[in-house]
């Protein structure tokens, strides 16, 4: 009898959920579902509701809320011993791990989900698990296992008639053929996916497939077809309001307009794409995700320790009292639950009517967002001007070096990489950063002591923590501390300058345990004595003398808070005319690209620099830039790039 009443409550709840999901908006669904979640005591229902709420948040790209509710779903399904609910929650949490850069953990959780579905012999669930594993093994570059899993999923979906799942799997297989350059096969799978998704009216799936077909047409240089597909996807994505699809379609339109020479349209799509991308990929999402993982692990352990501490007799007594209370509750819960669902439906209907009145408000809000976005872009562009003024001026380099080049490519508008130079008169109390001419007030004193003092030229190439706006703030701070060390503290040795900057960083920005700072190289060239001193933190210059590469030493620790805090070493080299040096950050070597989408890597960069060494430095810069763009192709630039070549 108890089981029948409980089942009736489940049926009433599910019917109400279906009623809401068919009639009302996602935001209304979330409010209604949260109310039901708080009212029901059934763990299985709690698990299902939490899973559904998390899915809505995920489609809105609200990753933190999606993660929170999917973890709740996992907890409730474990308490209810519901293997199916647990498998679904593990699958979704795995996807969150991938979004936060932990692909191995993602695959581990998907494998656990697959095992549970095998135990349950859940055909729909198994097909989903095999398809998702195929997708993420493809992301991991394990193409053999990826195709194997996708083909298993494809066969199962065809057998059980799962058209929605079949649409996803066909797209995954098409992506794999596209990565191999087999465009005709890829197009066949994309078109089959589009046909299925149009049959079942899956607007989200249609938008995804149209973007895939557009990218395929763009790769084949069929710009007319690419534009048609991209515009259809963009229009549908905009109507749906799903940020991920809107990001992908606007990025595709940006590439097409750029290739067509439509500058205004390309810029408009680029701003939309970058704005959505930055919202989706906020660094705070990743940090909050990790904090949540630690919190959940702690709560699970605390709960386990608490249970062990309770005496068995007391546990049995509590269970007896709960069971007696449930017998009385079920009768009232069935009636109350039904009445509650009717109230929820009435509230939802009222909210639906109100939403119709709010459409004009949404339009004005959209305009406000666009205005704010423009203000942010304008502010960042102004920040770039400030950053550029602190980078070394060409007049100082022209006066100090016989030949040089600078390849500087920020990932975003502003950069965490920076290059800096200064000229000092050893023994004097002043220096001139970014200029070849001393301050006028010191000019007389400088000429007086010119014979007894030697001129030193400093050059630094550094990679600050982060990129974009956070990286730019760090670069400005680091430049300020380097200037302070030389100008105010009269420190001349590169290793002592690094140690001073490290202390300033630890005392100012690393007090809460953050490890912010930079990796970099600082040279000090004494042209009169034909000597060079340098210090190198987690980086080293490439030095060529007499047409031979000289292996230089460096310290494996950053300038800032790290695992080590030894003194930095200083190294000295005798210079001869014609010596060539390359100073660079890790952005070029870390760029993904090529036919297999792999990193360029440091070894390959050294080989490239060696191969261009014989050319004039201005031509070397052109070759390096061409090679970088060719390697990157259509992929996104992953980090700031800075390479400086100098000849003595």
Folded structure, characterized:
The protein has 648 residues and is α+β, with helices and mostly antiparallel strands. Among the domains are: 1-33 and 310-349, no CATH class; 218-306; 390-647, PPM-type phosphatase domain (Phosphatase 2c, domain 1). It is built from 23 helices and 14 strands. The N and C termini lie far apart (93 Å). Mean pLDDT is 80; it is low at 1-8, 10-28, 283-291, 297-310 and 427-452.
Class from helix and strand fractions: alpha+beta
Main CATH class of the domain at 390-647: Alpha Beta
Classify the fold: give the CATH topology of the domain at 390-647.
Answer: Phosphatase 2c, domain 1
Bulk shape = elongated
Radius of gyration using CA atoms only: 31 Å
Question: Helical content, roughly?
Answer: 55-70%
Query: Given the structure, what is the number of helices?
Result: 23
Fraction of residues in β-strands: 5-15%
Q: Give me the CATH architecture of the domain at 390-647, please.
A: 4-Layer Sandwich
Uncertain spans, ≥5 residues at pLDDT below 50? 1-8, 10-28, 283-291, 297-310, 427-452
- Return the average pLDDT rounded to an integer: 80
* Distance separating the two termini: 93 Å
């Amino acid at each position: 009898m108890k089981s029948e009443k409980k089942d009736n409550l489940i049926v009433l709840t599910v019917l109400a959920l279906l009623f809401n999901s068919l009639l009302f908006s996602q935001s209304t669904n979330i409010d209604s579902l949260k109310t039901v979640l708080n009212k029901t005591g059934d763990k299985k229902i709690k698990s299902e509701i939490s899973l559904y709420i998390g899915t809505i948040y995920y489609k809105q790209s609200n990753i933190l809320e999606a993660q929170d509710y999917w973890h709740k779903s996992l907890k409730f399904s474990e308490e209810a011993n519901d293997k199916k609910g647990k498998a679904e929650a593990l699958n979704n949490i795995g996807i969150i791990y991938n979004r936060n850069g932990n692909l191995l953990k993602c695959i581990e959780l998907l494998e656990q989900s697959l095992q549970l579905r095998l135990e349950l012999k859940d055909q729909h669930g198994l097909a989903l698990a095999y398809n998702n594993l195929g997708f993420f093994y493809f992301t991991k570059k394990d193409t053999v296992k990826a195709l194997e899993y996708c083909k298993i999923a494809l066969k199962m979906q065809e057998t059980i008639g799962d058209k929605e799942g079949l649409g996803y799997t066909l797209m995954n297989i098409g992506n794999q053929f596209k990565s191999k350059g087999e465009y005709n096969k890829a197009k066949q799978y994309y078109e089959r996916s589009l046909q299925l998704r149009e049959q079942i009216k899956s607007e989200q799936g249609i938008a995804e497939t149209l973007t895939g077909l557009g990218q395929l047409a763009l790769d084949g240089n069929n710009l007319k077809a690419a534009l048609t597909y991209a515009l259809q996807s963009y229009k549908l994505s905009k109507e749906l309001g799903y940020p991920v699809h809107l990001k992908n379609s606007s990025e595709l339109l940006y590439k097409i307009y750029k290739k067509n020479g439509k500058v205004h349209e390309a810029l408009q799509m680029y701003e939309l794409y970058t704005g959505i991308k930055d919202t989706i990929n906020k660094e705070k999402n990743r940090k909050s995700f990790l904090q949540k993982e630690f919190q959940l692990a702690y709560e699970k352990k605390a709960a386990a320790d608490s249970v062990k501490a309770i005496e068995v007799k007391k546990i049995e007594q509590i269970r007896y009292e709960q069971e007696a209370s449930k017998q009385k509750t079920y009768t009232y819960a069935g009636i109350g639950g039904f009445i509650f669902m009717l109230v929820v439906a009435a509230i939802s209907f009222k909210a639906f009517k109100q939403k119709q009145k709010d459409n004009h408000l949404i339009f004005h809000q959209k305009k406000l967002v666009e205005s704010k976005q423009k203000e942010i872009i304008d502010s960042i562009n102004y920040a770039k001007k400030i950053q550029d003024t602190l980078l070394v001026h060409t007049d100082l380099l022209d006066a100090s070096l016989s030949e040089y080049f600078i390849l500087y490519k920020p990932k975003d508008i502003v950069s965490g990489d920076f290059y800096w130079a200064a000229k000092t008169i050893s023994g004097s109390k002043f220096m001139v950063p970014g200029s070849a001419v001393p301050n006028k007030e010191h000019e007389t004193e400088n000429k007086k002591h010119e014979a007894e003092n030697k001129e030193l030229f400093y050059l630094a190439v550094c990679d600050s923590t982060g990129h974009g706006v956070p990286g730019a703030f760090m670069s400005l701070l680091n430049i300020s501390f380097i200037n302070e060390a030389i100008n105010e503290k009269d420190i001349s040795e590169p290793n002592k300058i690094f140690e001073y900057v490290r202390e300033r960083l630890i005392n100012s920005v690393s007090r809460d345990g953050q490890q912010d700072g930079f990796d970099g190289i600082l040279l000090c060239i004494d042209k009169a004595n034909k000597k060079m001193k340098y210090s190198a933190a987690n980086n080293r210059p490439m030095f060529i003398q007499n047409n031979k590469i000289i292996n230089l030493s460096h310290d494996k620790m950053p300038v800032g808070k790290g695992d080590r805090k030894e003194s930095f070493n200083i190294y000295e080299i005798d210079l001869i005319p014609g010596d060539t040096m390359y100073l660079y950050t890790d952005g070029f070597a870390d760029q993904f690209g090529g036919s297999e989408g792999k990193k360029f890597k440091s070894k390959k960069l050294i080989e490239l620099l060696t191969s261009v060494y014989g050319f004039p430095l201005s031509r070397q810069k052109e070759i390096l830039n061409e090679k970088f763009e060719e390697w990157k192709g259509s992929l996104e630039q992953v980090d700031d790039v800075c390479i400086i070549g100098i000849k003595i």
